[in-house]
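hey can u check if this looks right to u? its 452 residues, i copy pasted from the old doc so theres a chance i mangled smth
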Amino acid sequence: MTKERPAAGTAPANAPPRIEILLVGMNGDLRGKQIPLEAEKKVWDGSVRLPSSTQSLDIWGDDNDDITGLSLSVGDPDGAVLPDRRSLAAMPWAPDGSKQVLATMHEFDGAPSFMCPRAILAELLKRFEARGLTPVVATELEFYVVEDDWRETGKPRPPERLTYRGKPNGFQLYDMNATDALDDYLQTVRAWAREMELPADATTAEFGHGQFEINLLHRPDALAAADDCIYLKRIAEQAARRHGLKSTCMAKPYADQAGSGLHVHASIVDREGRNILDAKGGDPVRLKSVCAGMLKTMRQAQLIFAPFANSYRRFQPGSFAPVDIDWGFGHRGTAIRIPDSQGPAARIEHRVAGADVNPYLLLTAILGGMLLGLDEDLDPGAATEPGKDPVGVERLTHDFLTAVEEFSASPFIADVFGERYRKLYGDTKRKEAITYLRTVSDFDYQTYLPRL
């Protein structure tokens, strides 16, 4: 039976409608303002203000002014929060008539902030536009649904409807019993996606207990595709609240269950709408060069694909998360998979990122690598074949701090994200990695204290 308890903080039934103007932070978090709908004009006339440092906050919400110098030391100046009208959408969980819109932070001279993830992706897309090219992008988001008592227990547990006497029923890959058990929740997600006009497609049960995947259809606008992904994450969480549950995009919420990824499918079309990666029955030379560009820059960009300490728990041999920097045709164990090399559907699938990734930064890193492969003739090496180990390839790192240092030293990152953002992101993540390393865990106490 559906749990109909209201979520904490649910507005009263007679609450007035509102519009929310939203910025996406460094960690994919949403920050912004709620504005009464009768005052909506201020959203569109550009008079909404927030401190520019809003875009520099770390996972704990700290502005780290001591290491960034972007907050109080310079007076914590405001920026202009300018909405993207294309992202205006309904807000189905809020009072009738409520809306939401995604925005980009701008300086008062009119320039987009170097710290704004939406602006960073938009700037990269100008390079494709200058070449007469358009990336076509789709995302596949995996996430877990858990019981909403995690604050009391200190850890997640699968929805009771997927357990028997408190124990999970087993792996649930493509199991319709699992989707049926949470059908009320999943139908709310789908209904709200439809109301918000998101191009949501298939929903499937994944391996983990309470893990699901929702596919979003291809968009010939990478910025809109990233917007779709942010909105889908928000829908998943808001719908979970409605049903007395919690959704999470942690990359690895359970040690003994599959991690959650965010896979990206991408192709490139020219001004005539032709897929330039189409091999047309021959050797997919251009497609392979694009793969090589992403492989060449993958270690440098891994901090984008795996932005938190927990992210690195996902990279385990024998799982569907890649550990090698390799590619293959139709091979789901590789970092870059080519599902199709012929016809309009010729594309790559990037399988490295976790569900915890910031989609704007993710697409910037992927498309930056693809652009490198378009501008140079690169060889990705031999394709990894099913049942065989990759030959002569580098591995992804399993270490958060190593990823920070490789990101921070990368000329590719400086070129694609901007040198100032490379420093901001790298310095902020270095603090997070060091804080993680300094934290003594229950594992340490359980393993070492009794024996040493």
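The first helix runs from residue 41 to 44.
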